[in-house]
Amino acid sequence: MATTTAPGTASRQDADTEARNARQDVRTRQLLDAAARLMQQTGSHQVSMKAIADEAGVSVGLIYRYYDSKEALVRAVIIGVLDEMAYNIPRAIEPVEDPVRKVAAAFTAYAEVIRDNRRATLLTYRETASLDRESQDLIKSLEMQTGQPMLQATQGAIEAGLFRPMNARVFSYDLLIIAHSWALKYWYFSERMSFEDFVSTQLSIALYGALLPEYHDTYADLLAGPQPPADQQ
Prior knowledge:
By secondary structure, the protein is mainly α. The protein contains twelve helices and no strands. The protein has two domains: 15-68, Homeodomain-like (Arc Repressor Mutant, subunit A), CATH 1.10.10; 70-224, Tetracycline Repressor, domain 2, CATH 1.10.357. α5 runs parallel beside α9 (168-184). The termini are far apart.
């Protein structure tokens, strides 16, 4: 006998599923943020699952519902950052048609993810080598994928005759490493400039060397950057 669904039941089930997924996302974010905070300070081997549970305000049992080992938790922290990049960067550059401004939009979006996940970024540098080979290979593959929008934007600027001929892979990857420096050298940059000034300063330096001179006026707003400190004027 066919089963009929009462009107509105399907929509209620969909809403319940969406709400449950949202709650799980909140819990996952709590766990990953707590793990990143603690592991970045002392290393994953020095941090117990109980300490992470206490930091996140959840039970140890809840952690094991999501992650069966500490290594799985470390891997999830790192992949979470890469997933956020994979989601945010294409959406940031999609509405931008100008090739040079695409590069700027990609760099800004990438740097914003680093800013929002500073501890997790540091954990990536600290802990990736401790993961198994399969996890390391996955992280490398995802990192290459997240760099594709920047590479494609750079290639577009070169092909349009706006950037000088150069190695697009090296230039685009350099920009990604520069974005990482907000996390890696946060103690230095945060004392001297805002995040917004960091982004505009780094962009102005990189684009000045990449743009052909005849286009400097066209992109004067990107090349200007913030005003330098008083002791450098």
